[in-house]
Amino acid sequence: MSIECSVELITPKQQSEDIEGDLEKFASKYDQTLSAGYSVSITDNPMGILHFQATEVIKEMGLRIDKEKVLIHLNTFHTKNDLDQLLSDLIDMGIYKLLVVSGDGSERLPKLTPQAINENCQSVTSVELLRYIHKNYSGKFVTGVAFNPYEPQDHEIEKMHRKIDAGATFIITQPIIGRNAAVDSLSQFKLPVVIDAWMSKKLHLLSECVGYTIPEDTPYDPIENLKEIRRCYPHCGVYLALLGFKTQLPLLPEILK
For 189-243, what is each residue's pLDDT tens digit? Predict the structure, then answer.
């Protein structure tokens, strides 16, 4: 394969009504992704909803670990004890690639406090979490960060500088449609960039991300968008969220060659 391709996978919810079935579905998608030569990118309690941790599911299902092709998301909604346990488990499993994000919270999720990680700030963000990881687990992890092209760019670029100073070595964007001027600006950092291609036909689900309402009937072809992203950013990796394993996965080799 000529470019890096990461497929986003979501572990089962802790309140799943069919946990055995959901675990089997996750394991199947995990295996299909690795067998196809792509990386798995496993989220951390997305949308603030409590899910099983990637480490728990990988162990429970006896999933194979390709150290080069497993990326684990890690956010700030953990107690320090749970955070340290998770990082220690990843080290024991040989998993070293992390996407460090501030994350989504809820009343069910504890928030890492500045005092717990010896930071003098009002709230822990991905910057402080990066610093903690690289100070206390030096040399154990390679860390990437998210970039939002829909936020005011002066602030977003300034924060990207701080993320890189804290140890980030690659960037994954929020979903984009075709070429994006803010994403183009990332070339200044001279780091590997991975472009998020939204693979669901339900484009309106991106409304919260982009900051304005996208009508539900907005026409959108995710395969054509992926092809356009490849044309616009041939040297970048791609990150595929909500990939259709039956209909879209078989099309990827031709698009990504």
Answer: 999 999 999 999 999 988 877 778 899 999 999 999 999 999 999 999 999 999 9
| Cβ burial 63-78 (10 Å sphere, 16+ → b, else e) | beeeeebbbbbbbbbb
> Cα–Cα distance between 239 and 92 in angstroms, integer?
26
CATH code, domain carrying 126? 3.20.20.220
Q: Please answer whether residues 64 and 97 qualify as being in contact, where contact means their C-beta atoms are separated by less than 8 angstroms.
A: no
Cα(116)–Cα(110) distance, integer angstroms:
12
How far apart are the C-alpha atoms of 152 and 210, rounded to whole Å? Answer: 11
Give 187's contacts (C-beta < 8 A, 6+ positions apart): none
Structure tokens at 142: 């390679």
Give residue 2's pLDDT. 37
- Percent of the chain's residues with pLDDT above 90: 91
Residue 99: give the domain boundaries.
5-256
11-40 core/surface letters (b: 16 or more CB in 10 A; e: else): bbeeeeeeeeebbeebbebbeebbeeebbb
Which string of b and e fits 240-257 if b means at least 16 CB within 10 Å? bbbbeeeebbeebeeebe
Number of domains in the chain: 1
Q: Identify whether the C-beta of residue 163 lies closer than 8 Å to the C-beta of residue 130.
A: yes
* Cβ atoms of residues 193 and 169 within 8 Å: no
Strand, coil or helix: what is 59?
helix
Q: Exposed, middle or buried by CB within 10 Å (0-12, 13-18, 19+), for 162?
A: middle
Entry pTM: 0.95
